[in-house]
Predict the structure.
Amino acid sequence: MLASDTAQLTDSEILLWTVLHNFEALALSQYEKFCSALATPEKKELVSLLFSRVPDNKAMENTSLDQPVKALLDAATSSSEKDTLLIQGLLLEVLGKTIYDTFKDSESFTAATHHLCSVGLKAQDSIGTKITTAIKERIGTAEQIYSAFIDISKPVILRLDALGESLDQHFSEQFDISFSDLMGSFVAELVLTCTNLGMERRKIVGYLTSALMGV
Amino acid sequence: MQSVADCAAVPLLEQESINKLMGLAVFGEKVASKIYLLMADLKEEFAPLLTKFARMEAQHGGWFLDASRKNGIEPDKEFADNELGYLISQVDQHYADKNFEALAIVQGFIVESLAIATYESFLPIAHKYPGTHEVFQKALDEENYHVDWILRYLRLRFFDAHEEFQKLAEYANIQGIDCIGGTMMNIAEYLDKIGMSGADCAGAMMDGYTQLLEKVGFEQRRATKHVVNMFMPLFHKYRRGEKTK
């Protein structure tokens, strides 16, 4: 066992990983239900590790994060394979990758968080190509993927954006990162991922702009 | 005491919206003309060309004013002055600093990106205002011509000096996007009201501007991230119904 496996998380990090644990656990359960190929051993290892580090939601209860996190989890819970691929596989996996990439080398975090980020990125690596392949196989052409994506993703993007203020309140000063910065990286990564799926860049930027403007 | 009904927002009329938008187009073109003249003053070798650009911008303003009159549109100068004041103060500062490149980015990339995004989106509905399609199409072609030169200039000026360009662009952008992107947010509902889409225009402006940064030397991911980061606070304000400046 590595020292970083058992290193102490700070109180703020416990709160952060409580939030992330909720999303990773939801992703795994959705994959197990609708796209079993994405429920990889690495993803299971990540969720299991998070469970061992932050086994419950105590840290989040009675904070301003509780309600917006639950609202986002609710919006991200899909009832079909197609929705799971687009919401979990495309949108939220890109968000997760952005978060882990941003935090993994930041001096604002402890070694314990750096380690969890590396496990998170390993889990991402294990499913990245599978997601792209599955989206193309199950949904179809780039235009069909775009139409399906804009049909279902707006509530999730809006609820993610609504979480921003609470995230800044709890983490911005502590970890020297703002929600705007994180969203900038996330949208940049999402635009690249979508164009790699064949979507037209101008259209996807236009769509994300309207979603973020709440139109 | 005011009742709730008294405080309710007055429905934004299409006429009021087009008056404001045309005000921004007419007087914005005049500011663009001024910026090219300031740039001409800073670089003697480019003065003839930049003075020509300034004349073209002034002419756009004239065309738009004529087209407005023919359609019963009263360009709203007060609205335009309010939106453009912040831009003018930035431009004056860059000129005082003799910072030609910062002026090139603000005018050639940021202001032109706003103009191009809105003029392009206006063309499909221009038939509602007879005579405007022709002048907006001509203005659009000429704005693209200006951007083409600015792009070539910046590519050569910062050839093999991408880091230097990125630092300059980030410096010029902080205020530039806050100002021009803020104007885009402030006019979004007026664009919607006349049958365009404020969100589509904002997206087109962001994407157009990002692509210009890439062409001079920003890596795609960094350019997108940089532009989105600057727009995020503006989106938040827009969603809360706040004015951006």
Remarks:
- The CA atoms of residues 108 and 147 of chain B lie 5 Å apart.
- Residues 13-239 of chain B form a domain with the Ferritin fold (CATH 1.20.1260.10).
- Residues 1-10 of chain B have pLDDT under 50 and may be disordered.
